[in-house]
Design a protein that fits this description.
single chain, 455 residues, alpha+beta, OB fold (Dihydrolipoamide Acetyltransferase, E2P), BirA Bifunctional Protein, domain 2, 2 domains, eight-stranded mixed beta sheet, five-stranded mixed β-barrel, 12 helices, elongated
């Protein structure tokens, strides 16, 4: 059975008989032997292989070019050269797959734009190999965080008949033939009604929180927003916990605890993957992550934030005015320049928030919160949900949403309603935070953005 290169590089002693496999990063030939740098994707490091002329398979050494795949059998021994502790002295080589001269990932620098155009190959680069290993580990850490706190995982629908945010920016799901010119009724469609890809699992998640107590969802969500910014994608992943018998204070506590937990997870890994982002992407990355992990979060109301921004003397691109959403430039100024730490803002104007958020006693704000971090801005958005049946019904009417389609949602308030709260964290936003990557297209395996949907 083959050994992972990660395990060989971490070995505490020589090994007399091992087999490794991977892709050739580089090959250097001498008169009677060759050096191969081999990587199998298990870690950032390469395994140096020394292959003497005359061993089985050496006759094809000239075909073992950058990108080719090989298996190597031999002995793991202390390295005679610098830069690595171990090397593999080969007893045999086997070529599995060749890579011709037009293999696009030769040993040279490549732009992000170029690598996005070959998303099927970019995981083989050092940077993106590290990126997607970190993505995998952070996904495991999310499940561990909630598991340690007794949350239940719920898989909410990807196809839905309800619009959580009420913004209408949803992808329609239909089996109707677009070539048919005559009007086609939703009643004649596959589900017998209009259906869409979900923008959030929150509403369905609430029904389970009102039965199981504390739950979370972690899955793909979709938004048909024609945005070309570096922070938006049409398909992305959301982490959405929902807690029964919980108010806004408890919601903010959990969100802040979760962000710290995940940032500490990224910092404490000793596999070298984070280092490549510190070196080539963001030299201030570790300092910023240590700030998020070590500092307490500042908490203030939306009105207090507007007042601070208004008195700042800064010339923002977007004007600061009560009743308007905070923009990324405002959020980053608060976290990076004014407070110098993460910030949680709560008590947003009712008019700019969805129908399900609990109305505060002042009648003009809701129990909503956003968690902001340096370098990113908003990373978490949440609220205490409106648990009062009469107020929730009034909210739906005010938004022009049909009560009959939300009857199931209203039932959770009709039958044993309880205070409950939750939030959503964009998984890709989290990955941008812990790696310093500036574009969401570079933290998701296959980006879906307006005008682009390969594979």
């Amino acid at each position: 059975m083959r050994s992972l290169i990660r395990d060989l590089l971490a070995s505490s002693e020589p090994r007399s008989s091992v087999e490794a496999a991977g892709w050739v990063r580089t090959r250097r030939d001498s008169k009677a032997f060759s050096f191969l740098e081999l990587n199998d994707g298990s870690c950032l490091g390469n395994l140096q292989v020394i292959a003497d002329q005359g061993i089985a398979g050496y006759e094809r050494i000239h075909e073992m070019t950058t990108g080719a795949s090989v298996t190597v059998a031999g002995e793991l021994v202390p390295s005679q050269g610098g830069g690595q502790q171990w090397e593999l002295r080969a007893s045999s080589l086997r070529l599995l797959g060749t890579a011709p001269e037009d293999f696009p990932l030769q040993k040279k620098g490549h732009s992000m734009e170029f690598l996005r155009s070959i998303s099927h190959l970019r995981p083989r680069t050092n940077l993106f190999g590290a990126m997607f290993r970190i993505r995998s580990r952070m996904g495991h850490a999310v499940h561990r965080f909630f598991g340690e706190r007794g949350f239940h995982l719920v898989h909410t629908p990807i196809i839905t008949a309800s619009d959580c945010e009420g913004a209408g920016e949803m992808f329609r799901v239909t089996t109707h033939d677009p070539a048919v010119a005559r009007p086609q009724s939703p009643a004649d469609d596959f589900f017998g009604r209009s259906t869409h890809l979900t923008v959030s699992g929150q509403l369905e998640g609430e029904t389970f929180a009102c039965a199981l107590g504390n739950i979370y969802t972690f899955g793909p969500t979709f938004r048909a927003e024609n945005s070309h910014t570096s922070r938006h994608a049409a398909e992305f992943w959301m982490i959405e916990p929902e807690m029964a018998f919980c108010d806004l204070e408890g919601d903010m506590d959990l969100a802040e605890e979760m962000v710290k937990y995940l940032v500490v997870e990224a910092l404490e890994r000793q596999d070298g993957d984070l280092g490549i982002f510190e070196k080539f992407v963001d030299k201030g990355l570790r300092k910023r992550l240590e700030l998020v992990a070590g500092e307490s979060f500042e908490r203030l109301t939306y009105s207090e934030a507007i007042e601070i921004l208004g008195k700042s003397g800064e010339r923002f691109e977007y004007p600061v005015e009560w009743g308007h959403n905070l923009q990324s430039e405002h959020e980053r100024w608060l976290t990076e320049k004014h407070f110098g730490r993460p910030v949680t803002i709560h008590g947003y104007p009712r008019a700019i928030k969805p129908f399900y958020m609990r109305l505060n006693d002042d009648g003009r704000t809701v129990a909503a919160m956003d968690l902001l971090v340096p370098g990113i801005g908003e990373i978490v958005g949440g609220s205490q949900r409106e648990e009062r049946l009469d107020q929730l019904t009034a909210n739906l009417r005010e938004e022009g949403l049909p009560l009959d389609e939300y009857a199931w949602y209203l039932d959770t308030r009709r039958f044993g309603s309880v205070p409950h709260a939750g939030f959503g964290m964009g998984f890709e936003r989290l990955l941008m935070l812990v790696t310093g990557m500036g574009n969401i297209r570079d933290v998701i395996p296959f980006a879906r953005t307006p005008g682009h949907c390969g594979f």
